[in-house]
Design brief:
The chain has helices spanning 25-36, 43-47, 57-67, 83-86, 100-117, 129-133, 139-160, 174-190; strands at 14-18, 40-42, 48-49, 53-54, 73-76, 92-96, 167-171. The chain is built from eight helices and seven strands; from the N terminus they run βαβαββαβαβαααβα. The relative contact order is 0.22.
């Protein structure tokens, strides 16, 4: 765990959870939002329309701008093209920076489960065997091709302080992330003021 003050943590008033696809951003963000008692914003659910159709760019930006205009939230998603709307409003970045082996096998397991159980995702969309293994739009191929770039980009953003007002919290394993949530859960029950000022 890097760039984290264990006592006093970062200001989590408006936290953005990032990480490569398959790192568990939504699961972590949902748990954090529930713990803090704030809205959870999932960018994928705003972006995708039925039939895996991307929402119109201008409409997407309008919806995201409205969502992050509120005082408190936890948001998950990478979406580089929306960063100019989200990160200036955010107070903290939580980076799930896990090893490729963990991310890939989590993605594979999750995708197979979704296919077998016909799990409904955003706007009624479902993943399929064809999409996963016979398409360039495969979520597994997306993990493989974006993993190195995302890690490189986020490391540069963190190290160079491109958004100097942001606190960065970096977890390099699931154990670290889960320990943080467990610690925060105990803190939240006692006093939320140290992680959500005001």
């Amino acid at each position: 765990m890097k760039n984290t003050k264990v006592e006093g943590v970062a200001d989590l008033t408006r936290a953005v959870v990032i990480g490569t696809s398959g790192s568990g951003k939504t699961t972590f963000a949902r748990a954090l939002a529930s713990m803090l008692g704030v809205p959870h914003i999932e960018l994928d659910s705003i972006h995708w329309l039925p039939g895996w159709t991307p929402r119109d760019h201008d409409e997407l930006r309008g919806l995201v701008k409205e969502a992050v205009s509120h005082d408190r939230w936890v948001l998950d998603g990478n979406y580089r093209g929306l960063r100019d709307l989200i990160w200036p409003r955010a107070t903290a970045i939580i980076w799930l920076n896990y090893p490729f082996s963990l991310v890939f096998w989590r993605s594979l397991r999750r995708t197979l489960k979704r296919i077998v159980q016909r799990q409904e995702l955003y706007s009624g969309n479902r993943e399929s065997f064809r999409q996963t293994f016979l398409s360039r739009n495969s979520p597994l191929w997306w993990v493989i091709t974006t993993y190195p770039r995302r890690r490189r980009d986020y490391r540069a953003l963190s190290d160079k302080g491109v958004f100097p007002h942001l606190s960065w919290i970096e977890f390099q394993s699931r154990d670290q992330a889960e320990a943080f949530l467990a610690w925060l859960g105990g803190t939240a029950r006692q006093d939320l003021s140290q992680v959500m000022p005001g």
